[in-house]
Amino acid sequence: DQQVKQNSPSLSVQEGRISILNCDYTNSMFDYFLWYKKYPAEGPTFLISISSIKDKNEDGRFTVFLNKSAKHLSLHIVPSQPGDSAVYFCAATNTGNQFYFGTGTSLTVIP
Amino acid sequence: NAGVMQNPRHLVRRRGQEARLRCSPMKGHSHVYWYRQLPEEGLKFMVYLQKENIIDESGMPKERFSAEFPKEGPSILRIQQVVRGDSAAYFCASSPNRAANEKLFFGSGTQLSVL
Fold first, then answer.
1. Do B106 and A44 touch (CB under 8 A)?
2. A101 vs B45: CB contact, 8 Å cut-off?
3. Which residue of A has its CA nearest to B96?
4. Nearest residue in chain A measured CA to CA from B98
5. What stretches of chain A show up as alpha helix (H) in DSSP?
6. What is the pLDDT of residues B11-42, one digit of tens each?
7. Higher-pLDDT residue of B84, B99
8. What angle do CA A41, A45, A50 make, to 5 degrees?
């Protein structure tokens, strides 16, 4: 039962343009959402998060949007840079329980 | 402050052998999670442990897999009688507690190859 879904396995974007990565979830009890970035042969690293009481959180070039009614979140990267090329995982949890991860979206930023 | 340490980075086993994967959480972290990533797939939850307790093992296969997080020492994920399908990257993550808005910190993973 995949509670967190990333329906786009891959995305290619020109350098300098916006990258939009999407994520859907099914469990309305989730109260905290996170994005992780993963390079090959490395562990995932935390990128940005958002609490369910907010609908937007911004950190530099990265912004996460949460639409609770649609059970959807997205990660915007602008402007995209070649170093952003990686696999991005979204994750969701409710306090005290495990973290559920999506299947990842491989982002390629073309110079 | 050292991050989450996993060893070995690479582990090769023949079918039927045992694999032991170790994870030392970040200093001050008492919660450990194990995830498995199969080729071309996402991160699949396996088990969530606190010191000396298994909190959630709903993602663990019923046979051959076990995990522990003793009072002293690293967390261990043990796979007995490995099969080729166990070949995957195994990631450990830790958090200080499970208060609201706590994030996970991941190790670099152990790549298990079963011949």
1. yes
2. yes
3. A96
4. A96
5. none
6. 999 999 999 999 999 998 999 999 999 877 78
7. B84
8. 150
Q: What is the DSSP letter of A2?
A: -
Binned at pLDDT 50, 70 and 90, residue B110 comes out as very high
CB contact burial B19-48 (16+ within 10 A = b; e otherwise)? bebbbbbbeebbbbbbbbbeeeebbbbbbb
- The set of residues, in sequence order, having a beta carbon less than 8 Å from that of B15 and lying 6+ positions away, is B81, B82, B83, B84, B114, B115
Q: How confident is the model at residue B1 (pLDDT cuts 50, 70, 90)?
A: low
Closest residue to A102, CB basis, from B35, B42, B59: B42
The alpha carbon of residue B109 is apart from the nearest alpha carbon of chain A, in Å, by 6
Please report, for residues B13, B59, B83, B87, the alpha-carbon distance to residue B80 in angstroms, rounded to integers and kept in the order given. Answer: 11, 17, 9, 13
